[in-house]
């Protein structure tokens, strides 16, 4: 068997593929953060809790209303996105004129409250959520056993990421959004409802987190802390990619998934820190992140 | 006239003091994780268990006034230590109960010795509490890493699982569990092929599971707990590890984790607890009362708190004192029997000797109710489940 640094190539391919799968979660979550930061200038620390709410929403839809995975994939992001819109209207919208720090504190606090409420109601052990019957089983790729569901996660995440990128960078709506970021007063003067656009953008960013949550429910433990564990890594991804850069966060998300996957083969103990090491190195060389523009 | 009044008042005071001596008041502190990863295991459930013990003992009618307080140590040794000091120094707490998370438990045991109080642990796993770190003030109830290794590990090797690959949570508890289980595997003629240290906590185990799969080991030992275990088992099923003929050894699993996994994913898994709610009539009756308060089934940690409070109060009643040396001396000298563990006794090194179960997760079609999750495969007698006192290196034992 061919070996690379003492690891069989077949095993290496397997690990790279797994890295890509994890990367798709990083990409979806960091994309939502980047969209929100780019247009609202809010560092959305509630994102982890909203990802968790997505997973819980799909569990609730199944257990209280008998609605399965596929409808939940659409419904859960809509529901959680709606709660995001309420949050934005009631609280976040009052902070746009203040320093970033206030938005950070508010969203961080709200995130803790949401986690606490879910913990009170459902405990921390987690809830069971099965893989949809169409996607159980897997393919033998020769070098590894690839569960069908994981393949679906990569495809779904790529579609969602590219669609978001396309809307923001290539459509008229996206042009309005980008213009509103640069100069909201001027855009409003052209008769475009900027506050409404901002609210909907926040809702969409939150919906992206919830979508990732639904995708995660069948493979990760559905529990109130699931977002808190992930969100710190995702913030590192956003910082490496460059705050607010849409394409940057997608590419960095997938790339860091791969790097983490490789670390798990060669030195597993470091796999939880490797992303932060990269973050430090990137910040030393390019303080605005790999794809960020210096203000 | 004034003299008589003073004399009467003094007499009254003395009489008052007389009755106060007959009445002993005891303050119990339940110190555990109330908000984090282990809060479903101990948390409020252990407070409920302590209250049930006080109720069942009818402490009030026996002249013992019991007060129960609780706090959240957040699984951090520094926070646990500062609460412990405050409780002992300012709040007159006599006994600290539960204390999951091995690192916190070791800190609490040390302070308890310094302050000469009592620590009845039922939440922590490390066997060091009755080994090198044993003290005369700490008793270890419920379970420990050696018992988990002996019962689960021993049974799996005997069933033919003679080559092991470990997925180990990369901190003190995981290392201890791996160490103790490896010893059992080797003692029974098996071998350890490899091990991978996973960062704690992790949500994705697929990469580590594939490494374990590639090793062709017959058993993949999960030396982790809580969310890590749940994620690892869930993903092992997804990647077809168990269908491929490899077995999973859950080395520290609680009934709550099985509930979180669902039977479809967890079925067939073997693990060990010293308490299962559906074992016999008395455990069922006790658990029904517990569920009335908590809305979930109790586990061995909760049962341990109940059993330890009951035995402690018996000691206070018998010695008419709450002096730690006297009460613990009595507790070690007298065996106990209760609704949760049946018969048991406390060993010189502080280890509480109770029987342990080897459990198996039921198939979905075998389950008849929400919490009907496990069946008892065998009951392992205490002296085979726990480490012999001579092998523990407990300084208390050497002196004798």
From TrEMBL, chain A:
Primary subcellular site in the record, as a coarse category: membrane
A Gene Ontology BP annotation from the UniProt entry: amino acid transport
Membrane topology: Multi-pass membrane protein
Protein localization: Cell membrane
One family name in Pfam for this protein: BPD_transp_2
GO CC terms in record: plasma membrane
Alphabetic keyword roster: Amino-acid transport, Cell membrane, Membrane, Transmembrane, Transmembrane helix, Transport
Any GO MF annotation of the entry: transmembrane transporter activity
Transmembrane segments: 29-49, 61-80, 100-118, 149-168, 196-220, 232-259, 265-285
Signal peptide range in chain numbering: none
Coiled coil location: none
Protein family per UniProt: Belongs to the binding-protein-dependent transport system permease family. LivHM subfamily.
PANTHER family given in the database record: ABC TRANSPORTER ATP-BINDING PROTEIN, BRANCHED-CHAIN AMINO ACID TRANSPORT SYSTEM PERMEASE PROTEIN LIVH
Descriptive protein name: Amino acid/amide ABC transporter membrane protein 1 (HAAT family)
TrEMBL record, chain B:
A single GO BP: amino acid transport
Keyword Signal: yes
Signal sequence residues: 1-22
Cited SUPFAM superfamilies: Periplasmic binding protein-like I
Record domain Leucine-binding protein: where: 25-362
Keyword list, A-Z: Amino-acid transport, Signal, Transport
Top-level division of the source organism's lineage: Bacteria
Pfam families: Peripla_BP_6
Record-linked InterPro entries: BCAA_transport, Leu-bd, Peripla_BP_I
Gene3D superfamilies per record: 3.40.50.2300
The family this protein is said to belong to: Belongs to the leucine-binding protein family.
PANTHER family (UniProt xref): LEUCINE-SPECIFIC-BINDING PROTEIN, PERIPLASMIC BINDING PROTEIN OF ABC TRANSPORTER FOR NATURAL AMINO ACIDS
Name of the protein this chain belongs to: Amino acid/amide ABC transporter substrate-binding protein (HAAT family)
Organism of origin: Enterovirga rhinocerotis
Lineage, uppermost ranks: Bacteria, Pseudomonadati, Pseudomonadota, Alphaproteobacteria, Hyphomicrobiales
């Amino acid at each position: 068997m061919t070996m690379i640094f003492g690891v069989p190539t077949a095993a290496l391919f397997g690990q790279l593929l797994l890295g890509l799968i994890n990367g798709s979660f990083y990409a979806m979550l960091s994309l939502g953060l980047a969209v929100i930061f780019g247009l609202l200038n809010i560092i959305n620390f509630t994102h982890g809790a909203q990802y968790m709410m997505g997973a819980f929403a799909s569990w609730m839809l199944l257990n209280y209303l008998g609605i399965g995975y596929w409808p939940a994939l659409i419904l859960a992001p809509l529901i959680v996105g709606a709660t995001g819109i309420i949050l934005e209207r009631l609280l976040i919208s009052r902070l746009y004129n203040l320093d970033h720090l206030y938005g950070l504190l508010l969203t961080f606090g709200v995130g803790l409250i949401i986690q606490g409420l879910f913990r009170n109601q459902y405990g921390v052990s987690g809830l069971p959520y099965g893989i949809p019957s169409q996607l159980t089983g897997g393919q033998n790729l020769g070098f590894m056993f690839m569960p069908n569901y994981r393949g679906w996660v990569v495809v779904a995440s790529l579609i969602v990421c590219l669609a978001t990128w396309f809307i923001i960078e290539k459509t008229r709506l996206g042009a309005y959004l980008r213009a509103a970021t640069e100069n909201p007063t001027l855009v409003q003067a052209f008769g475009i409802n900027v506050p409404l656009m901002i609210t909907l953008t926040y809702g969409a960013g939150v919906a992206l987190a919830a979508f990732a949550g639904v995708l995660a429910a069948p493979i990760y433990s559905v529990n109130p802390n699931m977002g808190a564990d992930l969100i710190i890594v995702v913030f590192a991804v956003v910082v490496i990619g460059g705050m607010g850069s849409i394409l940057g966060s997608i590419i960095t998300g997938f790339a860091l998934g791969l790097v983490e996957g490789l670390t798990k083969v060669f030195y597993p103990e470091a796999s939880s820190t490797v992303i932060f090491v990269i973050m430090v190195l990137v910040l030393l060389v390019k303080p605005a992140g790999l794809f960020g523009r210096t203000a | 006239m004034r003299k008589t009044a003073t004399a009467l008042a003094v007499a009254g005071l003395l009489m008052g003091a007389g009755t106060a001596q007959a009445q002993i008041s005891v303050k119990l502190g339940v110190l555990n994780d109330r908000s984090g990863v282990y809060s479903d295991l101990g948390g409020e459930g252990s407070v409920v268990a302590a209250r049930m013990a006080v109720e069942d003992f009818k402490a009030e009618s026996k002249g013992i006034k019991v007060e129960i307080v609780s706090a959240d140590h957040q699984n951090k040794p520094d926070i646990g230590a500062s609460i412990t000091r405050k409780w002992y120094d300012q709040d007159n707490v006599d006994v600290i109960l539960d204390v999951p998370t091995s690192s916190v438990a070791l800190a609490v045991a040390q302070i308890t010795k310094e302050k000469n109080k009592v620590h009845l642990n039922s939440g922590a796993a490390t066997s060091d509490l009755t080994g090198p770190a044993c003290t005369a003030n700490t008793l270890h109830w419920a379970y420990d890493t050696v018992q988990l290794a002996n019962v689960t590990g021993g049974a799996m090797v005997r069933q033919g699982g003679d080559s092991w690959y470990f997925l180990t949570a990369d901190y003190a508890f995981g290392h201890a569990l791996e160490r103790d289980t490896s010893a059992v595997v080797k003692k029974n003629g098996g071998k350890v092929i490899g091990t991978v240290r996973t960062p704690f906590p992790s949500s994705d185990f697929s990469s580590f599971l594939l490494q374990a799969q590639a090793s062709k080991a017959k058993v993949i030992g999960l030396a982790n707990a809580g969310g890590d275990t749940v994620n690892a088992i869930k993903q092992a099923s997804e990647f077809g590890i168990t269908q491929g003929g490899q077995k999973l050894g859950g080395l520290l699993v609680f009934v709550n984790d099985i509930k979180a996994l669902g039977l479809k994913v967890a079925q067939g898994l073997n693990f060990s607890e010293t308490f299962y709610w559906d074992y016999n009539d008395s455990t069922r009756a006790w658990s029904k009362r517990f569920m009335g308060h908590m809305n979930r089934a109790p586990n061995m940690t909760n049962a341990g708190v109940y059993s330890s409070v009951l035995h402690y109060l018996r000691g206070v009643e018998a010695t008419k004192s709450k002096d730690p040396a006297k009460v613990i001396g009595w507790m070690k000298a007298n065996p106990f029997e209760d609704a949760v563990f049946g018969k048991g006794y406390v060993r010189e090194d502080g280890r509480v000797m109770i029987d342990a179960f080897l459990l198996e997760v039921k198939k979905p079609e075998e389950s008849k109710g929400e919490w009907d999750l496990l069946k008892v495969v065998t009951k392992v007698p205490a002296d085979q489940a726990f480490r012999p006192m001579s092998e523990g290196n407990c300084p208390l034992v050497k002196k004798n």
